[in-house]
Amino acid sequence: MTALAPQLQSQAQPAPAPERTKHRLLERLKRAGPQTVQDLAANLGVSVPGARRHLLDLQEQGLIEARTERPGGRGRPQHVYVLTDRGEATFPKTYSALCVDVLRHLQILYGDEAVTRVLGARSAELTAQVQAALPAELPLEERITRFAAWLTELGFDAVAEPGDQAGEWQIVERNCPNLTVARSYPELCHSELRLFTDVLGLPVTRESRIACGQGQCRYRIGP
């Protein structure tokens, strides 16, 4: 054991895995705010070129962005990196728990009807927003494709697919960003179904639901 000690001590420590370094970069930006590449490299103990490579990868993933800012509003402008909304979303949030708590208190104080009315009002507001961007004169395929893209922006990872019958379409949501809330309050899923019907102006049937343990939410849109 003693004879081996010098040999072991002389061995270089393994470099951190690239993904671990990227995670540390994100953590530093989260905790310290805008940072230059030099600041990040010094804090993480990596070379400036190495930090630049990781930052470029994170930019390509849409997790960070570069800005030009004056430190404290004074001095020469510096090139700094900050988290994007997508980068912020990689850190744990308690929004779902907060939403469930608010709805629970609303239900206790004002009854089930209050929850339905609140979610209905939210659905109506979203419907108005989407309808403004999806004029009725657009071809059905384009409207459905744009609608799926809008859902994806909200985190549903949605795709539009032709249905089995002529003139029929399907929208498949492969993620539910509101899963915690939907499991506690099925009214949220009911309001989503109304949203589909109101936006598209066509019969819509939900054939599967993530909140019920299925792998995706699948909506069949009839002609």
Automatic annotation (TrEMBL):
Residues 1-20 are annotated as: Disordered. It holds the Pfam family MarR_2. It comes from the Bacteria. Residues 20-74 form the HTH marR-type domain. Gene3D superfamilies: Winged helix-like DNA-binding domain superfamily/Winged helix DNA-binding domain. Residues 1-14 have a biased composition (Low complexity). SUPFAM superfamilies: Winged helix' DNA-binding domain. This is Transcriptional regulator. It comes from Deinococcus rhizophilus. The lineage of its organism: Bacteria, Thermotogati, Deinococcota, Deinococci, Deinococcales.
